[in-house]
Each structure stands twice: as structure tokens, then as C-alpha cells.
Design goal:
Layout lengths: L3 H14 L1 H38 L4 E6 L1 E4 L2 E5 L5 E2 H10 L3 E16 L2 E10 L3 H4 L4 E4 L4 H5 L4 E4 L1 H8 L8 E4 L2 E9 L14 E5 H9 L6 E2 L1 E6 L5 H15 L10 E5 H44 L1 H9 L4 H37 L8 H27 L3 H6 L2
Parallel strand pairs: 6-11, 8-10
Antiparallel strand pairs: 1-13, 1-14, 2-3, 4-12, 5-6, 5-9, 5-13, 7-10, 8-11, 9-10
Length: 409
């Protein structure tokens, strides 16, 4: 029967005798574990940031865009032909049971002034329901009323970036700004949504009624035309059904036959979120796989040093066998040594990985999220490496002939 306690103590003493060698042997595992933790942390942080950014744009949303125009044989892309109207939006919310809110949407970049301040920003023409669709909240003032929409009122909601650049610390409510020289009364200020990963500032925006945008600011060759219709579905399970309902309705309204190309497109934000999450998950796996290569290198280092150790300690092995140690005892001893080296290296690697991850998150804009899963995965993998790469030296040591080992110089 194996005396694990004595074998363990012998393994500990052997590692203590060669402290420097033991530390250098564990170095590969230390680097590998810390690299895996850092890489997985960066990947998880990126995935979380992208999910939050897409969620801040609104959930359960379908975006219906107008069709593509053609100029000189070149197709100009979706949204370049005015094929959607306010009447389409009204029909969608009236006839599509899976739809909760609908808002016509138009946008252009304009110069805005207040007193001696000016700022170029995006002017968005929307319905009052747009706030519910995109999960926007009002920090100060109020949202548009139906009366504002019906009367083409010259009223505006300001994003946080616009408020800062035009008003500074002043209260913007009831102040008058000018959009392309046209006076607008500020009735509300929006809570901040922050920037998207691609550098888009969601707060650099001014909202005005879509009717006002059509008739007073943007102008249009086709009365009632809009570039986009934003749709909020009742719940995520109804996304596919709502998309089908909208498609069938617009086919009827636009008189599109079965074999004809759609003059609109529908973009599914939920599918976009899932796609981005899958992409970032794949990136995390790729980063973790790359980092795990250094763990394999560390395992090879353990095996090489253990083979050298077997050669150096041949006489010691012979003495142990001569006084009663079995081949299994010798094998277990060297396996324990390899396992201890890998586990010790793994623990130090975890500590370094956590410190470096915290440093990256503190001193850069990179989001790093270290999960318990990545820590246990790294430690488990390092222990497995110790067993796998320590087995051959242990097996080789257990096959030594005691008499030959005692004669070894």
C-alpha cells in the first residue's frame, strides 16, 4: 500500500532543495495561467461591453428601411429611395398584433446655435413613441405631446452632449435654439446613453417631431415620406412573427408581387445582438486558446526538468527501492512533484493575472471581466498539464533497476 504522507513529504523536500530550479520550472505555467486569465478577461469584457451598447440602443426592435435607388446603373443602397411613408407606420401599428410601438424616423446633420454658441449635430425627426422604442428617458422637462406632433410644433429634446456644448451648466428648459436659423423651444433634456464602441456618441442628438422635420426643417419631394420606421415588438418571442406581419402588410400596401424585389428592408436588432455576442464569444475562445499554448510550453518545461531530475537522483531512487520502496511509490513521488510545480505555478499565475487585469482596466479604457470560470479553468488545466507531462519522467524513474541505480555515478 502506498504511504502517501511519506511520499508527499519526500516530494516537498526534493523541491525545497532545488528552490531556484523549482521556481524556473514553474515559470512557464505561471506565464501560461496569467495569460489565459488576462485573455479570457479581455474577451469577456469586450462581449459585455458590446451587449450593453447594443442594449442601450433598444431591445425587441425592428428597423424598417426604405428601398434602394438606382443611378446610372449603380444601386445606391437601402434607404436611398423614398418608399416608406407615415401611412405605412400607422398601418403597421394598427394591423400588426405583435407590434407595440411604431415611430417614423428621419435624420440629418444640421448646425445649431444658442446665443453665441454653435454646434453641428444630428437632428432626428421622431414620434413621441420613439422614447419607448429606444428606451430613452427624460432627465429634465417633458416628451413630445400628440398636439406637438399634429401642429408641427417647433419644440426640441436635447441630448446630453448638445446641452453641454450649447448651455454648459445652464438649465436648457424653455430656452430657444436655432436649427438652420429656425427657432425651436427646448422642452426636454435626455438622460445620457454614452458612446458606442465604434465611436458614435448617442448623446450628440436633437429630437424634434417628425412632422416638423418633414415640413419645416428637412423638406421632402414626397409628402409624408420617411427614411425609416422604428418598431418595438411586444416581446422577443414575437420578433419573427412581427417581421412576417410587417412584410406581408407592406407587400399589400406597396403592391409587391411574389417574384418582385422588396422596396424595403427589415433589420432585426435582437439578431444583431446575438450575432455580436457569438462573435465575441468566439474571440474569447480564440484568445484563450492562443494563451493556453504557453501552458503547453510550461508543461514541456516541467517534463524536461523532471527528466533531468530523474537522471541526477538515480542513486537516491536506487536507495529508496533498496529499503523497500516500490515502483509505484517512485512513480507517485515524481508525479506529486510535477503536480506541485504546476499547481504552485498556477496559483501564482492566477494572482499575476488578476493584478494585470485590474491594471489594464484601471489605466486603459479596456473593459476586463475575470470570471470564476476562467480562474478554475486555468488552475484545472495547469494541474492536468502537471499530471500529463510529469507522468513520463515518473514512469521512467519507476522502471530503474535498484542495483543499476545504486551503481550509477
Amino acid at each position: 500500500m502506498i504511504d502517501f504522507h511519506s511520499t508527499f513529504n519526500i516530494a516537498i523536500k526534493s523541491l525545497r532543495i532545488n528552490k531556484m530550479r523549482s521556481a524556473l520550472t514553474s515559470l512557464g505555467i505561471i506565464i501560461g495561467v496569467s495569460a489565459v486569465i488576462i485573455m479570457l478577461g479581455v474577451g469577456s469584457g469586450a462581449s459585455n461591453r458590446i451587449s450593453n451598447e447594443l442594449s442601450s440602443m433598444g431591445t425587441n426592435i425592428l428597423t424598417v428601411r426604405s428601398g434602394s435607388s438606382t443611378s446610372g446603373g449603380l444601386r445606391m443602397g437601402m434607404g436611398t429611395q423614398q418608399t416608406l411613408t407615415v401611412k405605412d407606420a400607422e398601418a403597421i401599428v394598427k394591423n400588426c398584433k405583435s407590434v407595440l410601438y411604431v415611430s417614423p424616423y428621419l435624420a440629418q446633420s444640421k448646425q445649431v446655435t444658442y446665443s453665441n454658441q454653435n454646434w453641428a449635430t444630428s437632428i432626428n425627426g421622431i414620434d413621441k413613441t420613439y422614447m419607448d422604442i429606444k428606451d430613452w428617458t427624460i432627465a429634465l422637462g417633458r416628451n413630445f405631446s400628440q398636439e406637438d406632433i399634429n401642429n408641427n410644433a417647433k419644440v426640441a429634446l436635447l441630448g446630453n452632449t448638445v446641452v453641454t456644448n450649447l448651455f454648459g451648466d445652464l438649465d436648457p428648459i424653455d430656452k430657444t435654439i436655432r436649427i438652420d436659423g429656425i427657432p425651436f423651444k427646448v422642452i426636454g433634456a435626455l438622460n445620457s446613453k454614452g458612446q458606442l464602441g465604434m465611436g458614435m456618441d448617442q448623446d450628440d442628438v436633437i429630437m424634434i417631431p417628425y412632422t416638423t422635420a418633414q415640413k419645416r426643417v428637412f423638406g421632402t419631394s414626397f409628402p409624408g415620406a420617411v427614411s425609416t420606421i422604428e418598431v418595438k415588438v411586444r416581446d422577443v418571442d414575437n420578433i419573427a412573427r412581427a417581421e412576417q406581419e410587417i412584410t406581408e402588410l407592406l407587400h399589400l400596401r406597396h403592391k409587391i408581387g411574389k417574384n418582385q424585389e422588396n422596396d424595403f428592408s427589415i433589420r432585426n436588432m435582437t439578431e444583431m445582438v446575438k450575432s455580436m455576442q457569438e462573435a465575441t464569444k468566439a474571440m474569447s475562445i480564440l484568445l484563450g486558446s492562443i494563451a493556453s499554448v504557453s501552458l503547453l510550453v510550461g508543461g514541456i518545461g516541467i517534463m524536461n526538468i523532471m527528466l533531468v531530475s530523474v537522471t541526477e537522483r538515480t542513486k537516491e531512487i536506487g536507495i529508496r527501492m533498496a529499503i523497500g520502496a516500490t515502483s509505484v511509490d517512485i512513480r507517485v513521488q515524481f508525479l506529486i512533484e510535477a503536480l506541485l510545480l504546476s499547481i504552485a505555478g498556477g496559483l501564482v499565475g492566477v494572482a499575476i493575472g488578476l493584478l494585470v487585469s485590474k491594471g489594464i482596466a484601471t489605466f486603459t479604457s479596456t473593459s476586463v471581466i475575470v470570471t470564476p470560470f476562467s480562474i478554475f479553468l486555468s488552475l484545472g488545466f495547469s494541474a492536468l498539464i502537471g499530471v500529463i507531462f510529469g507522468y513520463y519522467p515518473a514512469y521512467k524513474a519507476s522502471l530503474l533497476n535498484p542495483i543499476d541505480a545504486l551503481r550509477y555515478e
